[in-house]
Design brief:
Elements: H1 3-13, H2 17-62, H3 67-76, E1 97-100, E2 110-115, E3 119-122, E4 129-132, E5 136-141
Antiparallel strand pairs: 1-2, 2-5, 3-4
Helix pairs in contact: 2-3
Length: 145
């Protein structure tokens, strides 16, 4: 076989190689980008819930005990339900928020505000679905009579 024919055969064999390589790299790139998006969204939602629970606990410590108002502080960032509201931030419901007051009448009295079983949706392929987030709890001492 002559050298120029040999080189032509090699070039023809490699014609689809760049297309296959690009498809594989694009798959890895898109999966990584969606994974980064999921992680960022997870951190943002978790930090938003932590901030809401802390705010509600601080509100609960300086106001008279009203668990419904404290739940509303977590859900809507105000003590009353806004007109037309069906759920709180990121689909949070009142059933997911708990407010307790252990140690009433003692020196160990506290206000405990928690969010439990809140849903989180992943979009990354292979792990896509709805998962339950970690519990978020804030406990502050209370000195309200």
């Amino acid at each position: 076989m002559r050298p120029e024919n040999f080189m032509r055969c090699i070039r023809q064999d490699r014609r689809g190689q760049s297309l296959v390589e690009s498809a594989l790299i694009l798959l890895v790139l898109l999966t990584t980008l969606i994974g980064i998006f999921d992680l960022g969204q997870l951190l943002f939602i978790h930090q938003s819930f932590v901030e809401r629970v802390r705010h509600a606990a601080r509100y609960a410590v300086v106001n008279s005990y009203d668990p419904v108002a404290f739940k509303n502080m977590v859900l809507y960032r105000q003590s009353t339900v806004p007109e037309g509201a069906t759920s709180g931030i990121f689909g949070l419901t009142a059933a997911m928020v708990t407010v307790t007051r252990p140690g009433v009448g003692t020196n160990d009295e506290r206000i405990v505000v928690s969010i439990t079983s809140y849903p989180y949706r992943f979009f990354t392929p292979l792990i896509a679905g709805v998962f339950v987030g970690r519990n978020i709890t804030v406990s502050l001492p209370s000195e309200i009579p």
